[in-house]
Predict the structure.
Amino acid sequence: MPERDDIALLQAAGKGDRAAFGELVQRHHRAVVHYVHRFLGIGDRATAEDIAQDVFLAAWKGAPAFTPRAAAFTWLLRIAINICLNYSRSRRRKPTVPLIGEPAAAGRSSQTSDPDTAALEEERKARLEAAVASLPPSQRSAILLRHFHDLSYSEIAAVLQTSVPAVESLLFRGRQRLKKVLERERGDA
Amino acid sequence: MSCRRVRKLVSISLDGPPSQRGRNGIDEHLRQCPDCRRFREQLQALTSELELLTVPDPRPGFAGRTLARLPGKSRHLAFVDRLLEFIQPAPAALGTAALVLGVFLAISMNGYGSDSGTTDPTEALFAESLDLTPADSIGERYLSLLAEVED
C-alpha cells in the first residue's frame, strides 16, 4: 500500500481519522520534541514531551481547518512555536539544569570517557544553551530550524510567516548575536 | 561592498553556495579585510559549536501517549492505539509472530486431518480429491460407508 503523504494524513485526521493522525505523530514527533526542547532550553525530557504533546493536541483540534497551502510539517512547527511562546509567557522560567541521573543527560553530547573533558564539554554546552535561549524568539527559531531541522530559507519563511530576505536577516542577526554572547561569556570581547 | 553587506553574505553562504556574482564580491572583500575574514572564521566555528546542542530523543510510546490524550477517546480504543504503538517499531517481531502462528495452525490442521478419531468427513473428502490421503484412509472408509447407505 503506498504511503500516504502528510497532507493526506492531516486531511484524514481533520475528518476524525485517529489512525491517520497517529501516523502523522509517529512521523514528526521526534522533530517536534527536539524543537521544543531546544527552543525552550528546558532541561528535562518529560516537560519537553508534555509540551510537544500539546502541540499535537492543538494540531488535532486544528486539523479540520487545515488548508494544504503549507506543508503539514511547517504547519506543525508553526503550532510548536506558538505553544512554546505561550509556555514561555506563562512560566517566565529560566532554562533549567537537568537533575543528576535524569535521562536527559543520556542524550547529551559527552562521548568521552575522560571526566574532565566531559565536564568541560558540558560547560560549553550549557553556555551555548543559555546563549541560544537569550536570542529573541524569531532569531532563535530561524537558527534552530536551519541548523537542526535542515529547513530551507523558504520553508523557514513559511513557518515564521515572513519573507526569505527577512529569514536571511534573522539568521545573520541571530548568529552575530550568538557570537557576541559567547565571546562575552568566554571573556574574548 | 560594505563590511555589513559582506558579513550578511557570509552568513548566507554558510547555508549554501552564494551566487557567482555574490561570491566574487565576498572573495574580493575578504582578501582585503582581515576583520571580515575573522568574522567568517568565527561564524564557521559557531556553526560547528551548535552541533553540541544535542537533546535526547523522546521516550518510546510517545505517539500512543499522545493519541490517548485526544478528546473523546474510549479507553478500549486507547488501549488498541497503545498496542499498535507498541508493535509498530517491531515489524520483524510481528512478522515472526505471524509466521509462528501460521506454522502452528498448519501443523494443527494437518494433525486434525490425519487423526482418524476426529476427522471431519467433508475435510477428508477434500483431502482425497487432492490425492493427499493415503489409500485405506478415513476418506475411503467414509465413501464406502456412504455407498452402503445409499445402497
